[in-house]
Amino acid sequence: MRLDLVDGAVMPGHMTVEPAIDFRRPLHPQLESIRRLHALIRGDRPSLRDQRFVRLVEALRVADALAAGASLREIALGMLGDDWPGDGEHVKSRARRRVALAGELTRAGPGAVLARRI
């Protein structure tokens, strides 16, 4: 999904989003993106199928936190808001996985996400 500002400036208030379909590319991924956008606009929560998206967003937040100098504990408490390190250290483990994914995202760039290599 790509949103382009064609003319003028972004103004406060309502905007119209008009998804475009490119028939030169596979239709299924484009339609799936439109379905996700529609669900987001309706306020639906991501389904279990969209957990990849949730993990990627968390990893981007972690990358920002790491760039700001946050510790693993600060990342876990800020992102997960749970006890540190938690029963069986599940919170710490999840934070470590997000730090690793943040590193992969930083190294690979957005093309790897779009190509589903990450």
Q: What does this entry show, briefly?
A:
The chain is an all-alpha fold and 118 residues long. The chain contains five helices and no strands.
Question: Could you walk me through the main structural features you see in this protein, from its secondary elements to its overall organization?
Answer:
With 118 residues, this protein is mainly α. The chain is 56% helix and 0% strand. It has 5 helices and no strands. It has helices at 27-42, 51-67, 72-80, 90-108, 110-114. Helix 2 (51-67) crosses helix 4 and helix 3 crosses helix 4 (90-108). The radius of gyration is 18 Å and the shape is elongated. The model has no long low-confidence stretch (mean pLDDT 80).
Largest sheet report: none
The proportion of strand residues reads: under 5%
What oligomeric state best describes the polypeptide chains here? Answer: single chain
Run of helices and strands: HHHHH
Give me the Rg, rounded.
Answer: 18 Å
How many DSSP helices?
5
Which of globular, elongated, flat, extended, rod-shaped describes the shape? elongated
Parts with pLDDT < 50 across at least 5 consecutive residues: none
First CA to last CA: what distance? 17 Å
Structural class call reads: mainly alpha
User: What is the residue-mean pLDDT, rounded to a whole number?
Assistant: 80
How many strand units? 0
Helix content: 55-70%
